[in-house]
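Colleagues,

For the teaching module next term, I've prepared a clean inverse folding example: a structure given as tokens, and then the sequence designed for it. I'd like students to try predicting residues themselves before seeing the answer, so please don't circulate the second half yet.
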């Protein structure tokens, strides 16, 4: 399970750069740089104590009876779904005093990585070297489905084949799934997101962005062998720490041409979309208090993404970023072209360049309407059709290995607010017109002679998919039930199905060509720079490391730690401003709180989105913090790492304990943690 690797020479790795595979950890580098060599037992225990949230984010087991620690903003999807006009968990927070009071999440799945197996040879052997792009994609999809199905049948574990190094390697990840997950404690949003959008991605910070849940098995709290002990010792500056989490996606292998596509096309397109949706959610929220509550979680996610993408774009628009990448790429290609055995691989860069125009053309061709009810409808229609095929020929996400997770999503008991759905669907129909043109044949068919708002109202009124039983009936009835259905949303999904499949197939062929090209690029880089290193992030478990360290900004040194006294002072300094009022619980217990206790800290560990909720541990493997953000200087980490100013931001472990004991009257819960 645990192996070591000889890393590339230090000149190819910047500072504490790296999101390392748990089956290929940088033991040599850690020993050389920090005098620490993790044992197999240390790494396996940390891996088995870490979890992934299907809602996006990471977490960790922190007690033998199933307690799970993650961020408030990772848990906010569940908090929102468990809230109602009478019980606003987002605003008011929550504490279960007993197991019986813990609230079951409607559709949450946590994944614990149990094993990793290299299946590269088997995947590559199944793809004919002379196959067309279309055939190669189909052959690769078939062998991956076969491997996943065999693993599921043999082990009963969720089994996912993960593409690594742009397609140069394929690993089979097996996960134990926990689907009975219950809410134990969450602070108020005013504490978790103190400072609001103004402080988001900034530092210093004073946030209690933490939530505790519990996993159950057979109706009882799960009994866990692997969980993290919790350190009650404050961190010191320059202390070595580790982050075990699931970073989302990085593009560090990308060529200069691919980065220019992101800079000039993809990210501006995404930002335009996010700004549009932000205004939509804000306007809906202005209709009333209840509307604001219903829109709040989605609005927060949109605003967070908008600020993150703005930072990413800013980094790419800095001429120095592309200039640095161009210099590195030119030198690499010079070395490749000077080696007769490697020279044929240089064509991979040309292939990547040619693909960017095709990706640009596909940006506005999508027909997936971003609405919960439409998503249900499309998934039901696709599932009914895919079930008629052999497993190996099905779309990814609709195979036997993926079925259980798909059904959990489709059968979610989370509330669906039809007024919000109608507003979202009307806007999606308007966007469809803008992207494809008002005279487009498919657009005319979708609108059925009506304007977007009128058509959206008709579709919402004509669907029964709000009802879980209606969704179950269609799924269980299969293609016959779907074909016979006159549900308006199902009919819309059937109208769009052919185009959805066409767009998806085209994108998959582009991805296959990219995969083949980046596999060649990886081969060339490996032969020149040596083996080892780490692949781009894939929302799977990785280990990062760094040191607790401040930084300089605008001539001022930013200390690595903040404390509770600083939080109260920050609130006082911004008195009267939105998002800077600490909740009543904090103000009532100000005299009880030890103001010197660490609240937040920064370190140089290499993280991105998806790492939210990741545990931060010390050399002993004890939890010392909880990743919740990066500063604004770290937002270029999707494509380039720098530890000059870029920092990962965490809630301190001792700070969480202080809050539980001194503010939230949760001493009994605090006593369970780490035991």
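(Answer key — instructors only)
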């Amino acid at each position: 399970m645990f192996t070591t690797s000889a890393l590339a020479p230090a000149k190819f790795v910047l500072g504490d750069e790296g999101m390392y595979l748990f089956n290929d950890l940088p033991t040599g580098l850690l020993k050389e740089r920090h005098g620490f060599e993790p044992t197999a037992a240390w790494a396996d225990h940390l891996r088995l104590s870490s979890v992934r949230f299907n809602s996006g984010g990471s977490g960790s087991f922190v007690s033998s009876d199933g307690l799970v620690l993650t961020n408030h903003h990772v848990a906010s999807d569940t908090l929102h779904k468990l809230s109602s006009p009478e019980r606003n968990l987002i605003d008011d927070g929550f504490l279960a005093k007993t197991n019986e009071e813990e609230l079951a999440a409607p559709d949450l799945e946590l994944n614990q990585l149990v094993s990793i197996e290299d299946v590269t040879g088997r995947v590559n052997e199944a793809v004919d070297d002379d196959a067309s792009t279309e055939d190669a994609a189909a052959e690769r999809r078939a062998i991956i489905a076969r491997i996943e199905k065999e693993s599921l049948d043999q082990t009963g574990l969720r089994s996912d084949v993960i593409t690594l190094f742009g397609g140069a390697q394929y690993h089979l990840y097996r996960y134990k799934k926990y689907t009975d997950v219950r809410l134990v404690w969450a602070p108020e949003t005013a504490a978790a997101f103190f400072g609001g959008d103004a402080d988001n991605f900034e530092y210093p910070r004073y946030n209690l962005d933490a939530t505790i849940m519990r996993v159950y098995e057979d109706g009882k709290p799960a009994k866990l062998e692997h969980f993290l002990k919790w350190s009650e010792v404050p961190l010191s500056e320059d202390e070595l720490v580790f982050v075990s989490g699931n970073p989302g996606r990085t593009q560090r292998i990308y060529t200069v041409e691919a980065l220019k596509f992101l800079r000039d096309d993809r990210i501006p397109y995404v930002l335009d979309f996010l700004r549009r949706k932000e205004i939509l959610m804000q306007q809906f929220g202005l209709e009333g208090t209840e509307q604001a509550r219903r829109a709040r979680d989605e609005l927060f996610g949109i605003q967070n993404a908008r600020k993150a993408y703005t930072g990413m774009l800013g980094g790419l628009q800095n001429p120095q970023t592309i200039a640095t990448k161009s210099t590195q790429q030119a030198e690499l290609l010079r070395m490749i072209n000077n080696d007769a055995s490697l020279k044929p691989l240089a064509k991979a860069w040309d292939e990547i360049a040619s693909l960017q125009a095709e990706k640009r053309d596909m940006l506005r061709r999508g027909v997936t309407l971003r609405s919960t009810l439409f998503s249900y409808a499309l998934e039901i229609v696709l599932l009914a059709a895919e079930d008629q095929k052999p497993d190996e020929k099905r779309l990814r996400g609709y195979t036997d290995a993926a079925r259980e997770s798909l059904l959990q999503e489709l059968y979610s008991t989370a509330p669906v607010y039809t007024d919000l759905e109608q507003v979202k669907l009307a806007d999606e129909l308007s966007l469809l017109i803008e992207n494809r043109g008002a005279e487009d044949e498919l657009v005319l068919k979708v609108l059925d002679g009506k304007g977007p708002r009128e058509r959206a109202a008709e579709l919402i009124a004509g669907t029964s998919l709000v009802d879980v039983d209606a969704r179950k009936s269609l799924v269980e009835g299969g293609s016959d039930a779907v074909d016979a259905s006159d549900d308006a949303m199902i009919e819309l999904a059937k109208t769009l199905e052919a185009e959805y499949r066409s767009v998806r197939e085209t994108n998959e062929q582009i991805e296959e060509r990219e995969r083949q090209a980046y596999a060649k690029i990886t081969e060339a880089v490996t032969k020149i720079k040596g083996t080892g290193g780490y692949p781009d992030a894939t929302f799977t478990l990785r280990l990062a490391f760094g040191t607790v360290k401040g930084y300089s900004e605008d001539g001022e040194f930013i200390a690595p730690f903040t404390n509770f006294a600083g939080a109260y002072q920050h609130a006082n300094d911004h008195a009267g401003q939105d998002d800077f009022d600490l909740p009543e619980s904090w103000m009532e217990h100000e005299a009880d709180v030890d103001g010197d206790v660490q609240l937040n800290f920064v370190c140089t560990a290499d993280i991105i989105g998806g790492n939210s909720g990741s545990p931060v541990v010390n050399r002993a493997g004890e939890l010392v913090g909880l990743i919740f953000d990066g500063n604004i200087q770290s937002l270029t980490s999707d494509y380039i790492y720098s530890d000059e100013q870029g920092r990962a931001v965490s809630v301190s472990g001792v700070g969480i304990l202080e809050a539980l004991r001194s503010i939230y009257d949760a001493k009994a819960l605090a006593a369970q943690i780490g035991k």
